[in-house]
Amino acid sequence: MHIPFVDLKAQYETLKDEIVEAIRGILDSAQFIGGEVVTSFERDFAAYCQVGYARGVASGTDALHLALRALGIRHGDEVITTAHTFIATAAAIVATGARPVFVDIDPDTYTIDPSMIERALTGRTRAIVPVHIFGQPADMGPIKEIARRHALYVVEDAAQAHGAEYQGVRTGALGDVACFSFYPAKNLGAYGDGGAVTTNSAAIAERIELLRDHGRTTHYCHSEVGFNSRLDALQAAVLQIKLRRLDQWNANRRRAAEWYAMELAESGIKTPFVRKGSTHIYHLYVIATNERDAMRNELDEAGVTTGIHYPLPLHLQPAFAHLGYRRGDLPCCEAMAARSLSLPMFPELARDQVRRIAAIARAAAERDGHKELQRKSTSSHAALRADGGKEWR
Ligand SMILES: *Cc1c(COP(=O)(O)O)cnc(C)c1O
Question: Which of 300, 302, 319, 371 is 20 to 30 A from 58, alpha carbon to alpha carbon?
Fold first, then answer.
């Protein structure tokens, strides 16, 4: 009866023999850090992302941190990003010594709103970090145009979007450099922590190689002080096997998303909006409803585990209090923090499970009779801005 939020065991069952054999191979080789398995996974992942280079690192957080460092981002710089993301996006900026500057999101796709970026620029702005949140690419066309005009770097946070496309181009190939996480629950997940940086720049790839391995140029020579942030061989072996299935898993997620959309149509619940020309790979299936907390309780009571991504936007996190943001500064982020609900989503999710989840959600929405409010919430972007997002709160 219970429906989990993600089901990593179901996936493992389908891969067990292959994974166990690969892990045994690593144990036999006793090559745990670096080596042929890591470089061959890097080659496969670069090819998958349609870029020249992929470099494995220890986590998605490190991928972001090292990518920003590789670009020379440092103390005194400002980096534009979104507050509607996991804390790692901004933590990586802080780790370089730079200051994160938060820009509001588009109320339909939940990715950074390009029309709000230029007013956030200062003489210190060096880069933009768009996040392909929930599995849908940010609106990279206008973002890259702004970056070009103002000579800024674009660093993709692709931690939730392995394999998603924007106008026919895969994430990982959409900016100057891109950062992936292989945290177990991500669309491409290791059996532990892991991450990767992808780029078409040989110079950036080389900087990542140095930074991830203590600035090491030869065994005993270090050209600079770097970090210990390597992808280990066990994780690379697992990832290499899983990468071959990623497109099929993403297709299964899209199919589950279609079922949800069908079941939730006309319910007043706002389902994910996919921008024209983009593909969404549904790392998370996030709906929006004014009765989020009641709906979440009812699902919980029925044995359905849900999540909230994210209940407290970054600009209001205690960790970033020193940045001086206030409630009301980013109305769309704040509205989503109050209204968003992440429903179970994983490639093995079955038709009847979606039917059951949707029936409970629909009943909760109807009982709370919030259709009128929901109708308002889909009002135009401009209207939402004009009233400072009040309708949403
Ligand atoms: C998971 C995630 C990260 C961090 O990745 P880790 O591998 O957990 O360090 C960064 N950004 C986003 C948007 C994420 O979802």
Answer: 319
What pLDDT does residue 1 have?
84
Q: Which two tokens stand for residue 79?
A: 């980096």
Pocket flag, ligand 1, residue 295 (CB < 6 Å): no
Q: Where in the chain is the domain with CATH 3.40.640.10?
A: 8-243
Q: What is the DSSP string of 104-168?
A: PBPTTT-SB-GGGTGGG--TTEEEEE-B-GGG----HHHHHHHHHHHT-EEEEE-TT-TT-EETT
What are the tokens at 379?
Answer: 């009002």
pLDDT at residue number 367: 81
CA distance readout (Å), 10 to 4, 13, 133, 150, 347: 11, 5, 25, 47, 9
288-311 confidence digits (pLDDT tens): 999 999 999 999 999 999 999 999
Q: Model confidence over 42-65: pLDDT tens digits?
A: 999 999 999 999 999 999 999 999
Distance between Cα 26 and ligand 1 center (Å) = 26
CA–CA dist 334, 64 (Å, integer): 24
The Å distance, Cα 380 to ligand 1 centre, comes to: 31
Question: What would be the CATH architecture of the domain defined by 8-243?
Answer: 3-Layer(aba) Sandwich (3.40)
Q: What is the CATH number of domain 247-386?
A: 3.90.1150.10
- pLDDT for 347: 98
Which is the closest atom of ligand 1 to the Cα of 181?
Answer: 7
Domain with CATH 3.90.1150.10 in the chain: 247-386
Residues of the chain with pLDDT under 70: 368-393
User: 55 near 39, Cβ under 8 Å?
Assistant: no
